[in-house]
Design a protein that fits this description.
The chain has 175 residues and is mainly α. The chain has eight helices and no strands. 14% of the residues are buried.
């Protein structure tokens, strides 16, 4: 039993762990996009307490979070149907996560999904840096948005490298 614990992870398990990280990130990102107003209210409370919700009383991150809160509050009050757009964003994240189940189950056969994931991760960067300024998003926040694509790259590239190594050693054993 002790020998089994010291054995390295098989390549298939390594690939599944890497792809699982991507799936988990997409699911978390998707699920947290549904309750945006509730989340921003909670974050505002943590940042400034209950009595100082006016953005003009703050600078930096607190100013930005309170500005976003104010915008969401006003939008939800007057145009609640606009939140439907973020519902679709959340749904899209969950659906994209489903596509990564294919390479999680059969990595060699569905390596192309990982390549599309890498392309999407790279394309997050120009999207954030082009659309961010157009929409008035602070540069620091644009960098945070870019980080989502950047953080997704290592597990996807790792999994793809492991899959390519099967070309010389053969595919992983079926589960």
């Amino acid at each position: 039993m002790a020998e089994r614990e010291n054995q390295p992870m098989t390549p298939l398990k390594q690939i599944r762990l890497a792809v699982g990280i991507v799936i988990a990130g997409l699911v978390i990102s998707g699920v947290t996009a549904f309750p945006l107003l509730h989340e921003i209210r909670w974050l505002s409370l943590l940042l400034v307490g209950e009595s100082r919700y006016q953005p003009e009383l703050h600078t930096g991150l607190a100013h930005w979070i309170l500005t976003v809160r104010e915008g969401l509050e006003e939008t939800h009050a007057q145009y609640p149907f606009l939140a439907y757009g973020t519902d679709w964003l959340a749904f899209a994240h969950l659906m994209i996560a489903l596509f990564f189940i294919l390479p999680w189950r059969e990595p060699v056969r569905y390596a192309g999904v990982l390549k599309v994931g890498i392309a999407a991760s790279l394309l997050v960067i120009p999207l954030a840096l082009v659309c961010g300024p157009i929409r008035g998003i602070p540069f620091g926040w644009q960098l945070i948005d870019c980080s989502f694509g950047i953080l997704c790259l290592p597990p996807l590239c790792f999994a793809l490298r492991k899959i390519k190594s099967f070309e010389t050693s053969g595919p992983p054993a079926a589960p």
